[in-house]
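Lecture notes, unit on protein representations.

Consider one protein chain, 314 amino acids long.
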Amino acid sequence: MANMATMESPKSAGFVQRGSNHSRKQKRLEQEEAEIARLEAEARGEEVTESESGGEDTEDTSVQATDDTQQEETQEASETQEDDSNLSAEEKSFKKRYGDLRRHMQEKEKEFNEKLEALTTKTKRSNIVPPKSDDDIDAWAKEYPDVAGIVETIAAKKAKELFSKAESRLSELDEAHNEALRIKAENQIRKTHDDFDELRSSESFHDWADEQPKWVKDALYENMDDPASVIRVIDLYKVDNGMTPAARTQSKKAAASTVTKGSRTSIDAKGLQGQIKESDVAKMSTQEFEKRQDEITEAMRKGKFVYDMSGGAR
């Protein structure tokens, strides 16, 4: 009777008994909750130590038979595949948290592996030894073709940028140099003809230049580095238009001779001596014109310059 008194009868509560799988499900939930706690601790970066199971769990595990373990694992696997509709709200909540943590840990593991792979690749690349001489370049390029291609692309891009900047800078320097030469040449012209700025803005001067031979136009409008030619052309313009001091003096003498009583016109018996034709001047080169400039000017002053080309327009 004592033995019978000590025997425990299955405890029950309520009018409906729990299913035969209730205790198994409850144990699985406890295991999943412990796993969730462990995963949350790992996600926070905390060190996790395996906690010892309770005395009852240890005792049950030690006395459980191999067949019972296999049977329970099979049942748990089949229950895992069961529809969630059979789970309670608490069980669904635990299952969702467990799944979310599993996915989070998988993503973290993937991210870690990617960083590890990138670091490994970078470490391998850092071991690349660059060539030390021109002879080593070809061999190095064959050994590391990908890296060599990147280096060549970067070098070509940098070289293009440098050349572009150099060309722009050279263009600016050329413009500044040409401007300095032009200012220097104009100052040289002004030393001989201080009215140079007035003449080049004068319509009569340009009209006169339009009637002159090509070499006169070239000296004025095409010439960039020979101020002496411009000086000679202005000399011709002033002689032609009686603007030189000698021409003004000669003009005054001529005017005075017209009012002198009993004046006579002297005739040059020699006729064509010292005479220069406009057509001959037009055929001269710039160098020949500069050489004979004084002679031409003297002929104009003495009235022995024959305008056989533009004389009809005068």
